[in-house]
Design a protein that fits this description.
Helix 3 packs parallel to helix 13. The N and C termini lie far apart (52 Å). The chain is 43% helix and 13% strand.
């Protein structure tokens, strides 16, 4: 027996990194992309725009001013700013001193929740297509993910009945991204209320991940589940600065938790990483301030313009799009090509130098779609669209004559 076989848990390969489509496909596309010059990579969920200048300046001043010590639970000013943000923008109230826990990104926010509420073998519902980070966090806590189907024709919003029928005595929670990653789904208020009713009936928790909340379009609005009646004891909001505030590398997130759960989450956060970067937290205070609002309003407009162009471009290629209402990630409907998503992704990479993951890397129900991150300037997207057009045209021609 090798050292790896002796000491590395099988979960690492079989249940975590193995959730990237059929074996070898991810590695094959990465190898191919590395061999092609000038590839345009639209796979990441890392926004190309950066944090508001006032946030950067506030963090720099914190470093210079010696605000570099431990901040257990989070800098009080940041916890207060988050509580104010939830009251002003999201319609619910939390105590900043006890119910807000600052974490190293939303990933750690999910981690401390699962490490706190799960015992080995406990089940957590999530969507298919799924956000891989949620699945990996469940598995890392020795839980078992259970997948709820969603479909592009329904704008990727789960049917509450599909959620309820997957609940067993081992179910502890349902985690979902709203707005969605990878799908850009935006859940309606009535759907969220139905989920909350399910939580009460079956004694489980609801874990909305609201990381993309600022990017909602098509006249829709984001509804925070914690704003609904009866949510106080059942909803644990996972959030962060990475996406809506363009601060991925700052590694700051938070949990807004019920009063009964928050003390245990504070203990788990302390056990894992003690504290989050104190200077970065002062930058985050500035990111939540009125001074940063004009900057982030412009970010919203920029990603909205890219979204409108991108889906329209694919429609003009002969692949009509019915996108879900959020951005800056989303799903491209390629079903009319008649080709598997991996094959379409590979062809676009080889023939158009565009790198876009197949939807199957995010679950079996991603078949028929590509998952895109609109993380390049408009001129780059326009040029890539021109290159992809002939590739799609050839596929559609073959489909018509088949």
């Amino acid at each position: 027996m090798s050292l790896a076989e002796r000491f590395i848990s099988p979960r690492i390969d079989k249940e975590m990194s193995g959730r990237d489509g059929p074996p070898g496909q991810r590695a094959a596309l990465l190898k191919l992309a590395a061999e092609i010059k000038d590839v345009v990579n639209l796979n990441s969920g890392d926004p190309d725009l950066t944090a508001a200048p006032v946030a950067v300046e506030a963090a720099v001043e914190a470093f210079r001013g010696g605000k570099t010590h431990y901040s257990h639970g989070g800098v009080p000013s940041l916890r207060a700013a988050i509580a104010q943000k939830h009251g002003r923008e999201n319609g619910f109230t939390v105590d900043p001193d006890t119910q807000v826990i600052i974490t190293n990104g939303s990933a750690e926010a999910a981690t401390i929740v699962f490490q706190t509420i799960l015992e080995p073998g406990d089940e957590v519902l999530t969507t298919d297509p799924y956000y891989g980070g949620h699945v990996n966090n469940i598995v890392a806590a020795r839980g078992r993910p259970v997948f709820v189907p969603t479909r592009g024709d329904d704008l990727w919003e789960p049917d509450p009945a599909e959620v309820e029928k997957r609940i067993t005595p081992r179910t502890r929670a349902f985690i979902f991204a709203n707005p969605g990653n990878p799908t850009a789904a935006v859940y309606r208020k009535e759907t969220l209320q139905a989920f909350l009713d399910i939580a009460h009936r079956h004694n489980i928790l609801m874990l909305p991940d609201e990381l993309f909340e600022r990017y909602v379009y098509d006249g829709r609005t984001h509804v925070s589940m914690a704003s609904l009646p009866g949510s106080e004891e059942r909803v644990v909001t996972i959030h962060g600065f990475s996406k809506s505030y363009c601060m991925t590398g700052w590694r700051l997130g938070w949990v807004a938790a019920p009063k009964w759960l928050a003390p245990a989450l504070h203990k788990m956060k302390y056990a894992l990483t003690m504290t989050s970067s104190t200077p970065n937290q002062w930058g985050a205070v500035a990111a939540l301030s009125d001074a940063a609002k004009p900057y982030y309003d412009e970010v919203y407009r920029t990603y909205g313009e890219r979204r409108a162009f991108w889906y329209d471009a694919w429609t003009k290629m002969g692949l009509p799009q019915k996108p879900a209402p959020a951005a800056f990630v989303g799903m491209i409907d390629i079903r009319r090509t008649g080709r598997p998503a991996y094959e379409v992704s590979e062809a676009i990479l080889k023939e158009a130098r565009g790198f876009i993951w197949p939807g199957t890397f995010f679950g079996s129900l991603g078949e028929g779609y590509l998952r895109v991150g609109l993380i390049k300037p408009m001129d780059v997207l326009q040029d890539l669209g021109r290159r992809i057009g002939p590739v799609v045209g050839k596929m559609l021609g073959a489909a018509r004559t088949a």
